[in-house]
Specification:
The chain is mainly beta. Helix content is 0%, strand content 42%. The protein is built from no helices and eight strands. The N and C termini lie far apart (64 Å).
């Protein structure tokens, strides 16, 4: 099946939801592209420009994307979709030339702060 280019300018806001991880074989070895570069997979959420719909896709890149923070806005360069069918199963894989952070996207690294509880009540329960 064909690789289909995707116009990322039409996608809306794209955020990293799962930091880059090595793409591995069933035996646990890191997969490599035809040139021998290690493959990485990153989980991205895409909020469509119009409406409230959000999709999560996993995008493979050659080489590890750097500087990505979970929750941070990202830019994708050269995004392609490839539909596949194997033994009665079908799906779509996504591959990109690069995934880079958007400067000043407001994401924070580390765990999120706990939301404050109601005023006048302790967070420890009734005593």
């Amino acid at each position: 099946m064909d690789n289909k280019p995707i116009d990322t300018a039409r996608l809306g806001t794209i955020r990293c939801v799962i930091a880059p991880e090595p793409r591995t074989t069933l035996e646990g070895e890191q997969r490599r592209d035809r040139e021998g570069n290690p493959l990485w997979v990153t989980g991205l959420s895409i909020r469509q420009a119009e409406g409230r719909r959000t999709d999560v896709i996993h995008v493979v890149t050659s080489g590890q994307p750097t500087g990505l923070i979970e929750g941070g806005e990202v830019k994708i360069t050269g995004l392609m979709a490839n539909e596949w069918a194997v033994d009665g199963r079908t799906g779509t894989t996504y591959r990109a030339d690069a995934i880079t952070p958007v400067p000043g996207s407001g994401a924070v690294s580390g765990p999120a702060a706990a939301a404050p509880g109601p005023r006048g009540k302790s967070a420890g329960g009734d005593s």
